[in-house]
Amino acid sequence: MMKESAQMDEIDKEILAILTENSRLSNKEIGQLIHMTGQAVGNRITKMIENGTIKKFTIEINRQRTQFIRIYMDSNRFEAFEKMVNAHEEITSFCKISGQACYMVTAHFTDEALGEFIDELADWARYTIETVLSDRLD
After folding, report:
1. Which residue ranges make up each domain of the chain?
2. Mean pLDDT of the region 134-138
3. Which of 27, 87, 89, 105 would bridge 69 by S-S if both were Cys, CB 3.0 to 4.6 A apart?
4. Helical (H) or strand (E) element with 95
5. For domain 1-59, which CATH number applies: 1.25.10.10, 3.40.50.720, 1.10.10.10, 1.10.510.10?
6. Are 3 and 55 a contacting pair, CB within 8 Å?
7. Which CATH architecture has domain 67-131?
8. What is the pLDDT of residues 53-70, one digit of tens each?
């Protein structure tokens, strides 16, 4: 999630857009795209890291399957449940949420592994699963 600082200007937004598209570019390459020096770009990136606008740099893995799983707890054994969920490497996001569900999980299980996870999950909670058919974001 991106935190927008009140001090972020249009140049910072351009830098963020470029980094979002390709975080492997050097500061010099980014600077050439926005007509600044690499040092100036580096200073702006450092400032955005320090003020929390940039949380981390990462990559996006092309996954074959994506599931969104809403979890409705049947008990209050939250700590043990969270440990069980965190043991699954296929889970890339695990959030405690407000609303009807208690947790929202983003996962990338194969069909077989999803079945095994559901069997394990059923001992703890009720759930709904939405599976991505295709990503419509350009």
Report:
1. 1-59, 67-131
2. 80
3. 105
4. strand 91-96
5. 1.10.10.10
6. yes
7. 2-Layer Sandwich (3.30)
8. 999 888 888 888 999 999
